[in-house]
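Reminder: ligand-aware prediction takes two inputs, not one.
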Amino acid sequence: MAARFAPTDITADVSKLSPPDRQVLAKLVEASRIVDALFLRQAWSGNDAMLVDLARDGSPEGRARLHYFLINKGPWSRLDHNRPFVPGAPPKPPGANYYPEGASKADLEKWIQSLPAAERERASGFFTVVRRSLDVARDRPERVEGRSGTGFRLVPYNLEYQPELERMASLLREAAQLASEPTLKTFLTKRADAFLSNDYYDSDVAWMELKGAIEPTIGPYEVYEDELFNFKAAFESYVTIQDETETAKLQRFASELQDIENNLPIEPKHRNPKLGALAPITVVNEIYAAGDGNRGVQTAAFNLPNDERVVREKGAKRVMLKNVQDAKFAKTLLPISRVVLGASDQKDLAFDAFFTHIVMHELMHGLGPHTISVNGRQTTVRQELKEQYSVLEEAKADISGLFAIQHLIDKGSLPRAFEPSLYTTFLASAFRSIRFGVSEAHGKGIAIQLNFLLDQSGFTTKADGTFAVNRDRIKEGVTALTREIMTIQAEGDYAKAKALADRLGIVRPPVQKALDRLSEIPVDIEPRFTTAAQLRQ
Ligand code: ZN
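Here is what comes back for the chain with zinc ion:
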């Protein structure tokens, strides 16, 4: 089971950082180790005890279980629908350790509804856990204050995780002392305050305003681990530094976006004559990831914060982890290409093409139709396409990303030599995405593109079961699908969107055959944070 994650060194060039800045990174890595411990406890109340048991078991099976436990941050295999792999582990509790063990969703809902408005908001908020009144009374009698008869009570994170958060806050303050960049000092200081006050607003704003080489993300953020309500935020950490080359490339692309919009292959009336401000995107290299940011399949990009008040006032920031993408490319995409492509095409596989397309995918989300008019009614693509929206929007960002890069090649903004690697790398990466299934938006979107381009002969299948790019037809196919998807979006045509997804968002036999031959290839990486380890020495 663990072999599906290829051990990979995660490195980043810190040689340009000043010695104090390197110490800042070391402090952040130290704080992140506490994040790992916090997340382990958030995921399941039994994790700490089980980790001790597994660590004591010196048998080969015991060591293998410990290894896989650490990858998954618990005794359930996240790649296998959370199947338990440690004997005696119960099924994964959907409410993780955010709610009392055994409490039913209906009872919790009833209790939340019975609360006064302000408390109800905290109960469904990010930064509290729910405990049984009795548990709290027995374990921590000092925290009981009235509220009898409900059976449940709220405990804020700054009490529930007090010792760890106090330690993390002092590490962040030490890092702030060492840091020279003022916006970094501000973020670290405000985030340290937030750990103790449980009020994260100011520090989220400070995170949006970060500048300079060091880009840390540390705190309670994503709510996926709370499968019961998606209310509660899991602790995670990404210690990263800016990638200067890619950040410069991003600036260059940003200045081309209006020209790309003006040349989209749709009716001119559907184009946006004045694009809004670009949502901030930053390209970084990871030094260390912890907690919810390092379990199972590794995060390659994230969009934060999640607090809607901050997003309304300051927007959100997209952070792309370049060296993690590079590791996935080397350990999964290259071996996949050796199976799905012919020998002569493998030389065209290139990380630069892979990553440039990922960056362009993000930018293209901002182009094309968003606010539309249907029969004279002002509406949005999202509202009209309902549950089909995400699938089509992800497919749009991919396919129009290819269109946009080709446009930049044709006008001389990118080298002509980029062209072969662009399409061949996309073809191989389609198989990597579909391996994760076509039930979620991204995989289904990729299946639509792969099948459309096969039907249009932009991609072809060969007798030996491999796939190839047809240079004579690929550009036409990409343009045609960009037009088709964006026109459906512009017209807000739900029926057409659903028909397209139903017809093409599937795995057909030749593709399935190729997927079957990938079973021995790693699904993802297991990071080894070598640069972080060197910082501590
Ligand atoms: Zn996307």
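The longest strand covers residues 281-291. The chain has two domains: 45-92, 162-535. We will return to this case in the review session.
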